[in-house]
Amino acid sequence: MTASRGQWIAVAIILTILGGALTIGVALSDDLFPVAVGSRAPDFRAVNIASGDTVELADYEGEVVLLNIWATWCAPCRQEMPSMERLYQELGPEGLKVVAISVDDLGQGIVQEFVDEFDLTFEILHDESQKVELTYQTTGLPESFVIDRHGVIVKKEIGAVEWDLPAQQALVRRLLGVDAEEASQHD
User: Fold this and answer.
1) Which pTM does this prediction carry?
2) At residue 76, what are phi and psi to the nearest 5 degrees?
3) Cα separations (Å) of 62 from 43, 149, 159, 181?
4) Residue 57 has what DSSP assignment?
5) Structure confidence by residue, pLDDT tens digits, 93-130
C-alpha cells in the first residue's frame, strides 16, 4: 500500500509540473509564436461596416490580402489611406483584397464618416474590442500585413506606407501572379 501511495504522489507532482509548464507556455505564447514575416497570419473577427456581417481571416482563404490595422484619429493612418485606395484601384481587379480594420472605440458611425471623407472602396472592418491589436501584437498604428494565398505573412509594416509605389506594387503583383507588362497591356 505504501509503494502505491508513493507512486500516486509522484504522478501528482509530475502533473503539477506539466500543468505549470503549460500555463507558462500559454502566458508566453506571444513570445513563443510572434506574428512576423514567415508566420501564419492569426485569425481575427471584426464587423464589416458596409454589411454588418462578422468577418474573419478564413473568409479570405486563398486570397492575397493587405491587412491594415488603423484608427480614424491616427494621423499616419490618414496619411496612408489614399495610397491604399490607389493600390486597391490598380490591383483589386487582379484579385488583391485590401482589408482595413478600425480599432476606434467610438462606434461605427465615426468609421463610416472617415470612409466617406476619403472615398474608400475597399473593405473596412471594425473591431471596437481592439482584440485584433493583441492578436497581431501591434506596437502602434497603423500596422499592415501582406498575407499570401496560403495565409502566411510575407511583409509587415509599422507606420504609414505609400502603398502604390512601384516596389509595393511589384510585391503584390508577384503574389497575385500578375506580370507588370501584362497588366499595362490591359490599360
Assistant:
1) 0.81
2) -65, -30
3) 14, 4, 26, 24
4) G
5) 999 999 999 999 999 999 999 999 999 999 999 999 99
